[in-house]
Design the sequence.
């Protein structure tokens, strides 16, 4: 096969083969198919770029006031000035007097009359032919010119391997069966069209990626993804995991004839809600299978996911296996640790704690207990996978706030279960609900349970917006609140650029509030505190020894103090949807009316205004997540960022949601009727990315 020689710069962009090049699709197009005489170009080019040509009359460097290059061209109809504010000496040479130039750009009014600033120019003969198709503009990285990419793509399209690579795997009627109304292109047709659209192509549809040629490509990509998700689904059922059944014999050996799970239920100070009972039943069914559970437990903040996780852990421990609970931040992990200790220690369960902040000696001890199998329940942060921890016999891994972990990290926990052939059950938990389209595309091998009910007696949270210029009124209100014996949070803004600055504002607010509320004890907690210090402040707040807790976003997840029903968030306009929703979930945990005050500084951007108003009006986490998705895209919700790979290159889940369902149907059909082409389809579209589907 003829080999393409590609410049190293392209290889660096991952454009290392004809396949990669033909799938590198244009971001937009330039229309160089038409040529106007200069006088008409001056008229036509006011709002869109136009192409014209002429002979260079003058080419000079002028200073007015900056150094710039001014070129004038003429044809038989008129004059056109061209201006460059940055230029190389070589450009000046290229445009010497008498040269014939073809130029493309928009017309603006300049000092000397109408002109083009930084136009595209080519020195070509007046009769040089015009391209027949629109000129593609490719996504590129610094230092790689369009000329280089265009040439390489052009060669790739002609390369003998490309014909086979783009051959339709699906019979032609297959597509029309799924969507008869759609004008389905063949894949080959679609790819060529996108690289070289004819002059009369619907450029709007191309740009918006709704053109039939795009549709075909998007469908193919989704199809591959759905197939691979279904494969992963089947593969999981082939793996082995310990069956966690309640064995009556074993149960009889436990204290007073009760299983650990029963004992835990007996000591809980509350009854499980219907929703909790339902999801626990779903989880129990999974745990009793001989293949690993892969379940996501969704529930709004405060819906009571932790106790469900504890029950699952009890089930594993009952069988003589270890259970672990992993959380993305130390403060959240610590909350779990405290809670689990409260529940399980009286029942005689051996609990180990592992976090990055532990002293080496403590870590070593915890690791020894985990590896030796004396630790039954292990709570910790990423440290559980970062440090060289190996579990003796892990039966269940609970991962809280799963979207904060990368896919790779989730894969990694599987490698630490203490056996080469047996996998552990996984329970992921999240308060950030995954919208349906996302669940269908990224999580097709994930079973989802939803706690759609809050524990009884919870009052809805009232969210109010208030300008930060009314800060003193807020503080006065806060005083009244505390006077009633209630507690409150004061959340300081996230300052992404600088942790130091963030700490500084927190300290300023702390000082101010301390001064303004002398009769109350004010505490401060932030990310720079040692974990023992943090724990001490949190414990004091929980015990009502501190009435007002000033905090940076470290309290975003996990803190649980029912008597604190007021939260003030400073500079709420700097937070995202999910963050505020999580934060305000800290209040509304007791039986008093809860309030969340969003203080904002003016002027507000339009986006921030919309965000704050939505948060005031919408309490439902699902709806908030949908809006969040439409603004941010799926990457952040999924933690796909951490994995470094967006899974879908051509599909936008908002725009193309309807194609997802179609692709899902088609994937089922293909797996049954056209199984022989499945691997080819996967390889073509996903390449090495399929690994991530296993997580
Ligand atoms: P989240 O789902 O946000 O993790 P938690 O598990 O932290 O919520 O639960 C929030 C609070 O509600 C905790 O104090 C927990 O003990 C309490 N809780 C959980 N389930 C119930 C229930 N069925 N009835 C009353 N309180 C409950
Ligand atoms: Mg929680």
Sequence:
């Amino acid at each position: 096969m003829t080999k393409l020689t590609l410049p190293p710069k392209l290889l660096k962009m991952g454009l290392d083969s004809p396949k990669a090049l033909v799938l590198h699709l244009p971001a937009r197009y330039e229309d160089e198919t038409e040529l106007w005489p200069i006088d008409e170009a001056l008229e036509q080019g006011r709002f869109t770029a136009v192409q014209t040509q002429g002979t260079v009359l003058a080419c000079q460097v002028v200073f007015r006031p900056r150094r710039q290059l001014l070129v004038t061209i003429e044809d038989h109809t008129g004059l056109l000035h061209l201006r460059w504010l940055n230029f190389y000496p070589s450009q000046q040479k290229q445009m010497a007097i008498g040269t014939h130039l073809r130029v493309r750009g928009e017309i603006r009014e300049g000092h000397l009359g109408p002109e083009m600033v930084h136009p595209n120019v080519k020195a070509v003969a007046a009769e040089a032919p015009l391209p027949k198709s629109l000129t593609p503009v490719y996504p590129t990285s610094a230092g790689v010119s369009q000329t280089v990419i265009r040439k390489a793509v052009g060669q790739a399209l002609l390369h003998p391997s490309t014909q086979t690579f783009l051959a339709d795997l699906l019979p032609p009627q297959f597509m029309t069966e799924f969507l008869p109304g759609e004008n389905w292109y063949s894949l080959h047709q679609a790819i060529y069209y996108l690289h070289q659209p004819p002059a009369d192509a619907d450029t709007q549809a191309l740009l918006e990626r709704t053109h039939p040629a795009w549709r075909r490509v998007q469908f193919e990509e989704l199809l591959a993804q759905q197939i691979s998700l279904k494969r992963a689904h089947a593969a999981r059922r082939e793996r082995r995991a310990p069956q966690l059944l309640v064995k009556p014999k074993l149960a009889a050996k436990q204290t007073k004839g009760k299983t650990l799970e029963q004992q835990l239920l007996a000591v809980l100070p509350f009854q499980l809600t219907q929703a909790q009972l339902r999801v626990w039943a779903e989880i129990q069914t999974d745990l009793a299978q001989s293949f690993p559970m892969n379940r996501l437990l969704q529930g709004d903040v405060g819906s009571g996911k932790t106790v469900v996780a504890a029950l699952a852990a009890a089930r594993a421990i009952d069988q003589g296996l270890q259970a672990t609970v992993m959380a993305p931040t130390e403060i959240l992990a610590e909350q779990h640790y405290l809670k689990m200790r409260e529940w399980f220690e009286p029942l005689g369960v051996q609990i180990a704690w592992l976090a990055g902040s532990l002293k080496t000696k403590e870590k070593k001890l915890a690791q020894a207990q985990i590896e030796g199998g004396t630790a039954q329940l292990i709570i910790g942060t990423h440290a559980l996978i970062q440090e060289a921890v190996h579990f003796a016999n892990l039966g269940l891994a609970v991962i809280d706030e799963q979207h904060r972990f990368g896919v790779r990290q989730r894969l990694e926990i599987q490698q630490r279960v203490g056996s080469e052939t047996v996998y552990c059950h996984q329970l992921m938990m999240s308060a950030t609900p995954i919208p349906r389209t996302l669940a269908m595309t990224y999580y097709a091998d994930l079973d989802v349970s939803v706690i759609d009910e809050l524990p009884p007696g919870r009052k809805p949270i009232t969210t109010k917006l208030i300008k930060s210029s009314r800060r003193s009124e807020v503080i006065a209100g806060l005083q009244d609140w505390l006077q009633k014996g209630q507690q409150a949070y004061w959340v300081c803004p996230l300052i992404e650029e600088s942790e130091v600055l963030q700490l500084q504002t927190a300290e300023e607010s702390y000082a101010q509030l301390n001064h303004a509320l002398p009769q109350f004890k004010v505490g401060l907690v932030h990310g720079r505190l040692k974990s023992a210090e943090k724990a001490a402040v949190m414990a004091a707040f929980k015990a009502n020894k501190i009435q007002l807790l000033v905090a940076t976003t470290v309290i975003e997840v996990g803190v649980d103090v029912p008597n604190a029903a007021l939260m003030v968030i400073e500079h709420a306009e700097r937070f995202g949807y999910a963050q505020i929703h999580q934060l305000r979930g800290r209040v509304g945990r007791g039986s008093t009316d809860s309030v969340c005050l969003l203080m904002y500084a003016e002027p507000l951007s339009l986006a921030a205004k919309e965000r704050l108003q939505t948060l005031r009006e919408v309490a439902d986490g699902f709806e908030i997540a949908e809006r969040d998705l439409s603004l941010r895209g799926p990457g952040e919700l999924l933690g796909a960022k951490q994995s470094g790979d967006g899974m879908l290159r051509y599909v936008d889940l908002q725009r193309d949601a309807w194609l997802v369902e179609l692709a899902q149907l088609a994937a089922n059909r293909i797996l049954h009727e056209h199984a022989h082409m499945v691997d080819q389809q996967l390889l073509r579209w996903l390449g090495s990315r399929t690994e991530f589907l296993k997580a």
Remarks:
- The radius of gyration is 31 Å.
- Residues 635-646, 690-695 have pLDDT under 50 and may be disordered.
- The first strand starts at residue 28 and ends at 30.
